[in-house]
Amino acid sequence: MYDALRSRYTFSCPATGESHVRLSSFRVLERLPGTAHPVVYSVRFACTCGDEHPGLVSHDELDYAPLGLQEGSFLNLMTAQMDAVARELGDLAARRIQGGEWPWSFFCYPEERPRLVFPSAFFLLSASRDDVGVAVRCPACGAVSVNLVSRAHVDVPFHNDAHVGVVEHVFADDVGPALEEFRAELYSARFDARRLDLQ
Ligand SMILES: [Zn+2]
Ligand SMILES: [Zn+2]
Question: How many Å apart are CA 47 and CA 38, to the nearest integer?
């Protein structure tokens, strides 16, 4: 469940009861087979307790809630004031998208170009204090690329790093082998800087 005021996802934690994490704390995202209305993703996230836990997140919470574009049950339970905040956030996001800005992007290595994405295209993440390695399945060509970006690039909609690190390697497109390759490449530091010029 997405908490719009804190910009964090709420999951349950066996140690502390509840955990509030940002998108960059997600580690694995996988679309649950057979889900359609809504599409649901199973995630593993790095919890504030130090462990990783499983959780579930709907497609809307993943891609639209960070933009304030969702009128989910969470917001419907809130006060009228909260609803007004959500609408205002949504309007702002809509205006920025119409103005040519996009909330998330990455550099597609096989295509040698930046591409616009939503967070549901991210499927593996690995974070250090400042950087996030992210494996992205390109919505245009379907290939998997690995970028090294700032935490804000992942967590803050419309914050796109001017340059991102790109692993010069074409990855397998299913999670199992990709996870091993991803970890191996991520720690080999074979990143090449590319300009993420979206205009
Ligand atoms: Zn925990
Ligand atoms: Zn592509």
Answer: 25
Is the alpha carbon torsion for 63, 21, 72, 83 positive or negative?
Answer: negative
Q: Is 173 exposed, middle or buried (0-12, 13-18, 19+ CB in 10 A)?
A: middle
Residues 6+ apart with CB under 8 A from 81: none
With b meaning 16 or more CB within 10 Å and e meaning fewer, what string describes 65-94? bbbbbbebebbeeeeeeeeeebeebbeebe
Note the pLDDT of residue 198.
56
What's the mean per-residue pLDDT of the chain? 83
Residue 6 is predicted with a pLDDT of 79
Q: What is the DSSP letter of 109?
A: T
Distance CA(161)–CA(178), nearest Å, equals 24
CA of 105 to the centre of ligand 1 (A): 29
Task: Please tell me the number of the ligand nearest to residue 112's CA.
Answer: 2
**Residue 16 — very low, low, confident or very high, per pLDDT cuts 50/70/90?**
very high
Counting ligands in written order, the one closest to the CA of 16 is 1
pTM value?
0.83
